[in-house]
Amino acid sequence: APHEHYLEFTMETSSSDCTDRHCCVLTVPFPSAVEANIAFNSLRVDPEPRRSLVSKQLSVNQHQLIANFTATEARLLRVAMGSYMDHLLLVVDTIERFGHSALSTTKEET
């Protein structure tokens, strides 16, 4: 089934750092650190607009991609996360379709 390795993710919606803002942490496990780093490198090049009221911080912890969102309004957080999920699914589809070895080879040749 498509995305079978990526469907199990966790989402944390409260944090002590988020007293006056809406926050969400999305953790997505990948089969290996290679896939997690491919996703990280693909998604980090698309930062939030400078004047945006939403901030996004991406990181990798072993085989997990972690996205930390903060926003001034719940609606803005929802929109930002929806857009992020669309991009994440595109990256996952690409990894599944072509495999990480094809992406790693292309990177090494350039």
Radius of gyration: 15 Å
What's the total number of strands? 4
Fraction in beta strands: 15-25%
- Describe the main β-sheet briefly: 4 strands, antiparallel
Strand ordering within the main sheet: 1-2-4-3
Mean pLDDT: 80
Order of helices and strands: EEHEEH
Question: SS-based structural class?
Answer: alpha+beta
- What is the number of helical segments per DSSP (H or I, 4+ residues)? 2
User: Which consecutive residue ranges, at least 5 long each, have pLDDT under 50?
Assistant: 106-110
Overall helicity:
40-55%
N-to-C CA distance = 33 Å
Label the overall shape.
Answer: elongated
Question: What does this entry look like structurally?
Answer:
With 110 residues, the protein is an alpha+beta fold. The protein is 43% helix and 25% strand. It is built from two helices and four strands; from the N terminus they run ββαββα. It has helices at residues 33-43, 74-109, and strands spanning 10-12, 22-29, 54-61, 64-71. The chain has a four-stranded antiparallel β-sheet. A hairpin with a 2-residue loop joins strand 3 and strand 4 (64-71). Helix 1 (33-43) crosses helix 2 (74-109). The protein is elongated. The termini are far apart.
Secondary-structure blueprint:
Elements: E1 10-12, E2 22-29, H1 33-43, E3 54-61, E4 64-71, H2 74-109
Antiparallel strand pairs: 1-2, 2-4, 3-4
